[in-house]
User: What shape does this take?
Amino acid sequence: MYSPFAPNHPFQSSIMTPLAIHFMSMFIKAVVSYTNKKGQPQYAYQLVQGIRTPDNKVRHKLLLSLGTKWSLPKQQWPILVERIEDILSGQNSLFEYDAEIDRQARQIAESLRQRGWSAPTDVQTNLQTVDLDSIEHEPPRSAGAERICLHALRQLEFINLLESLNVSKKDAALCAALVIARMLHPGSERETLRWMLEDSAILEILELHDQLPPSLDKLYRLNDLLWKHRVALQRALFERERDLFSIAATVVFYDLTNVHYHGRADGKLKCFGRSKQKRNDCPLISLGLALDAHGFPLHCELLPGNVSGKYSAKPIGREESTVENYPEVPAQRVQPDILDR
Assistant: This one.
């Protein structure tokens, strides 16, 4: 049975000595019982408890002798003691223990109870009675993942970057909310707006809750704004990643994918081609992405749906291909119109 405590659990890195492994107030130690004819020490195993005497010295109090033939591997001693203390204190374990460890722990705990051992009673408790029918709360909203994503955007100085492009402070914050929504709840602008207002606390976190909620048209305009500044944003964000992680600007991978589009082909951006989603009945739009050696996005672009990789960029595989000499996508690239509203 898998145990979360072994072998790389943090408990395994506790202070160890050759003959004892300390674990909380209880621990198991081996003491020399006798020496055989070959001069080899033979050990007896004991469950002891560390106590502090009135003169501020630590002494070991013997709780139970485990005998000389006790054969549980030493790396499992802390797990056994953990289980013993759970049983004695009435604490339910979050994880499932190995069957043999659980059996021994129950046997040892029962032996300790028969010897009059009990859990410490000096822990003060403060119990309060709560009437469940009297509890009132507003609809809960998620906030943890939003804070993590916002922290990442602040590390990249995303909002400051937008403000440097003459974007208002409020619009820059809403753009950050849009990006976070794409990370956590990808969907259409309509679904994004519903998620912001009903399921997420992102507007409160960005201190936008005391203003009028954004409209659907507002989100459309902000997406257009992000597309307008995409080149400056991509360049600045990649440079910021280089500064944060001290990485060289090296292009090592470039790939294309495509998505199908429900509508008519226009012969420019929306074109018929080979669909990777097996939707050859729909016009396609290709997406190109270049990554550096560490997997950070360097550049992305929308291309016509009938473009293939060999026509969109030169092969990239040499580490000396840097950002400065990164091969440009050919002139067949076009400016996209509104994709989906």
Notes: The two ends are 53 Å apart (CA to CA). The mean pLDDT is 77.
